[in-house]
Amino acid sequence: MLQAQVLRDSRGIPTGVFIPIKDWENVKIAYPDIEECDSDIPQWEKEFIDRRLKTVKCNPERLQPIETLFQDL
Questions:
Q1: What is the pTM of this model?
Q2: Please, are residues 14 and 6 in contact by the beta-carbon 8 Å criterion?
Q3: Residue 17, class by beta-carbon neighbours within 10 Å (0-12 exposed, 13-18 middle, 19+ buried)?
Q4: CA distances from residue 51 to 9, 20, 60, 71 in whole angstroms, order as listed
Q5: What are the residue ranges spanned by the domains of the chain?
Q6: What confidence tens digit (pLDDT) does each residue in 1-19 have?
Q7: C-alpha distances out from residue 3 to 23, 46, 49, 57, Å
Q8: DSSP E strand stretches across 1-73
Q9: C-alpha 52 chain-centroid distance
């Protein structure tokens, strides 16, 4: 089990996470590409996600389980 600690500033706001090296090594074994995941998301992707979230918020009735899509296919 991962033994992470949340680091907080003087106001109690989370500022980081400490993961013991042994746990980090296990994470890297389970997810070999994890160290490549720290790059920023391109702006166009952020805008796309924001548009999709806005659509979902304005039209929640359009959400359906993924199983429905599989049945339709």
A1: 0.44
A2: yes
A3: exposed
A4: 33, 38, 14, 27
A5: 5-72
A6: 788 899 999 999 999 999 9
A7: 7, 31, 32, 35
A8: 5-8, 14-18
A9: 16
- What is d(CA 62, CA 28) in angstroms, rounded to the nearest whole number? 38
Place of tokens 């989370």: 14
Q: What are the backbone angles phi and psi of residue 3, rounded to the nearest 5°?
A: -110, 60
Output the CA torsion 14→51→47→17 (10° steps).
20
Pairing of strands 14-18, 5-8: antiparallel
Strand, coil or helix: 18: strand
Instruction: Please provide residue 18's backbone torsions phi and psi, each rounded to the nearest 5 degrees.
Output: -105, 125
Per-residue pLDDT tens for 24-64? 999 899 988 888 776 788 899 999 999 999 999 999 888 88
